[in-house]
Design a protein that fits this description.
The protein is an alpha+beta fold and about 600 residues long. Helices cover about 40% and strands about 15% of the residues. It has four domains: about 120 residues, no CATH class; about 160 residues, no CATH class; about 120 residues; about 150 residues, no CATH class. A hairpin with a 5-residue loop joins strand 9 and strand 10. Helix 1 crosses helix 5 and helix 14 packs antiparallel against helix 15. Belongs to the AceK family.
Length: about 600
């Protein structure tokens, strides 16, 4: 119930302390993001990677600090619910002129649910729905930096405008050939503008901060002409001489969604008003959920909040049930989905077959590794939830029985609200974007017949992309472990992405070996291996029999990726990584890149 009086003397001080905790978090988050510019200018790639990993931990550290303060000063866990209702109202008042109110609301939820435990989830004192609008925050007088800049060139002034756009970012490193780069950029932009008449509102808008990730910095913006908008991005990289160059022009929603994909590491970008950046990016990628945009900006807790709200809304506006996900069942993960919702839900099983020498703790550590690692566009990001509830009547009986059989410790069925409606509560669950399992994608091509040109192209594309995915993972120091087709998926854009993490290892932790020659005829005829195998030994030449049973698949694989069966390929990359090299992995296709005489 809404409190009739604000009569708890400690309520305001608790709200103030919680907002202080959030402000400290965002100040540190923004400071770390802002330092990405210096790390880029000095080409300190290892520091950039460490910062990307470390920043992920900032949120939980600040939540823990805030909880410790509230317990120390207010014995927060002993306060009655009426006090927490008043705390929320005071907190809302403190957010009226705040620049990141939506993030602060999520922080409030994180602190409150930890203190009050999950059995006390109630709308009365949580931000189940947002209380503050994020629109027009930039209109406040105290906002120092607008989210985007607008340039108004005439058509014949595009070259000068692009030069101004690029130099306004004040990178303290010279360009190799800025005028040549600009000419190439303008040629692409003119093609995108086309022969249409330039209207009075013709302009180029770019977000005020560069987007940093890995070894690149990205200008992100759009061309506006009348009602037409063309999104674009300019990747800025270093050449071997330590000078900058613009590598490509990415344009259109598909290019932008690939750049901001759920399978890539989070960007470092300095944002005073993050909601304004999200609003701008939504104008470039209207088909991309806001939750995924917040994730891409490194604001994963806010992305998680928005995802949950989207899921609740979807459940209210749909009628289909959760079911066992199509495809080959996993040995360590139980996977289910809802046909109308583009995500899959994964639970760690309680029992594993003998060949899977693992534990729940080890599996969770692998998922955490992926969360903190550079996913290079080849590993799906995951949302992790604990003690989350769904309506019982939205579950197929087969699925309930499957969970009871393989993961009983992870599920409880109860009437939480005493309203006569049971809910299914999951103690721990991972949620990922749904993809077509690669084995099913290939089988579709086989079923249609490879003599059909379209089916043959589908098969060839899948095999080539599969090899590309593994090579990108290798460049990022990741060995997939289980490389079977079923552990990879195909995205809506045809990209092959890895999503089974329980056996991944760092390349640098593996020992890549060639299978020793048989010592005698008995070894050669034996069905058992005749050589010793260490726990981290990998024999790439043995991949073939498991992956290449189909002759057409083998032909394509050997043509494009036969080196993956050679231990020397893996060992050479391991040695490069051990020498400290950070290998290039681009979030766009090779044909997008400008041809350069100096490279």
């Amino acid at each position: 119930m809404f409190p009739q009086r604000l009569d708890a003397p400690e309520a305001y001080e608790i709200a103030r302390a919680m907002l202080d905790g959030f402000d400290r978090h965002y100040r540190l988050f923004r400071s770390e993001s802002g330092r990405a510019k210096h790390r880029f200018e000095t080409q300190d790639w290892h520091a950039q990677q460490r910062a990307q990993r470390d920043r992920i931990e900032f949120y939980d550290l600040r939540v823990d600090e805030c909880i410790m303060r509230l317990e120390r000063e207010f014995r927060a866990h002993e306060l009655p619910m009426t006090v927490w209702q008043q705390v929320k109202l005071f907190y809302i008042g403190l957010l009226v002129n705040h620049h990141q109110p939506e993030l602060a609301e999520t922080f409030f939820n994180s602190v409150t649910t930890t203190i009050l435990h999950h059995s006390h989830f109630r709308n009365d004192f949580l931000f189940i729905l947002p209380a503050m609008s994020t629109e027009y925050i930039e209109c406040q007088d105290d906002v120092l930096h607008p989210s985007f800049r607008a340039y108004y060139p005439k058509f014949e002034q595009l070259h000068e405008a692009v030069r101004t756009i690029v130099t306004d970012y004040n990178l303290h490193v010279p360009y190799e050939d800025l005028e040549g780069d600009i000419a190439r950029v303008v040629e692409v932009l003119k093609h995108q503008i086309g022969d249409v008449k330039l209207r009075a509102n013709f302009q180029i808008q770019v977000l005020s901060s560069l987007f940093y990730r890995n070894k690149g910095a990205y200008v992100v913006g759009k061309i506006v002409n009348s009602y037409r908008e063309v999104p674009f991005s300019l990747p800025i990289l270093f050449n071997d001489d330590g000078k900058l160059y613009i590598d490509a022009v990415l344009h259109g929603e598909n290019d932008m969604r690939a750049l901001f994909s759920f399978s890539r590491a989070y960007f470092m970008v300095d944002m005073e008003v993050p909601s304004a950046y999200v609003q701008f990016l939504r104008s470039l990628m209207p088909g991309m959920p806001r939750a995924e945009i917040y994730n891409a900006l490194g604001l994963a807790k806010q992305g998680k909040t928005l995802f949950y709200r989207d899921l609740v809304s979807h459940l209210q506006h749909s009628t289909d049930n959760f079911r066992i996900a199509p495809g080959i069942k996993g040995m360590v993960m139980l996977v289910f989905d809802m046909p109308s919702f583009p995500y899959v839900f994964k639970i760690i099983k309680d029992y594993y077959p003998p060949q899977k020498d693992t534990t729940r703790e080890l599996i969770e550590s692998k998922y955490k590794l992926v969360k903190h690692h550079d996913r290079v566009g080849r590993m799906a990001d995951t949302l992790e939830f604990r003690n989350v509830a769904f309506p019982r009547d939205r579950f197929d009986e087969d699925l309930i029985e499957e969970i009871r059989k393989f993961a009983p410790s992870q599920m409880e069925i109860a009437d939480l609200d005493d309203d006569g409606e049971e809910e299914v509560i999951f103690k721990h669950i991972y949620i990922e974007r749904r993809m077509i399992p690669l084995n099913m994608y290939l089988q579709e091509a086989f079923d249609a017949g490879l003599e059909n040109s379209r089916s043959h192209h589908q098969m060839e594309h899948a095999v080539v992309e599969y090899g590309n995915a593994i090579k990108d993972l290798v460049a990022a120091n990741i060995f997939p472990g289980d490389m079977l087709w079923k552990n990879f998926g195909v995205t809506r854009h045809g990209k092959v992405v890895f999503y089974d993490y329980d056996e991944i290892e760092y390349i640098t932790d593996c020992n890549f070996r060639k299978v020793p020659a048989p010592r005698n005829e008995e070894d050669e005829m034996s069905g058992e291996i005749w050589y010793s195998v260490g726990p981290k030994d990998v024999f790439p030449e043995t991949f073939g029999p498991f992956l290449l049973g189909n002759d057409a698949v083998r032909e394509v694989f050997m043509k494009h990726h036969g080196d993956l069966l050679d231990s020397q390929f893996w060992q050479a990359h391991k040695e490069r990584i051990q020498r400290g090299e950070v290998l290039d992995v681009f979030p766009y296709e090779q044909e997008k890149r400008f041809e350069r005489k100096t490279r």
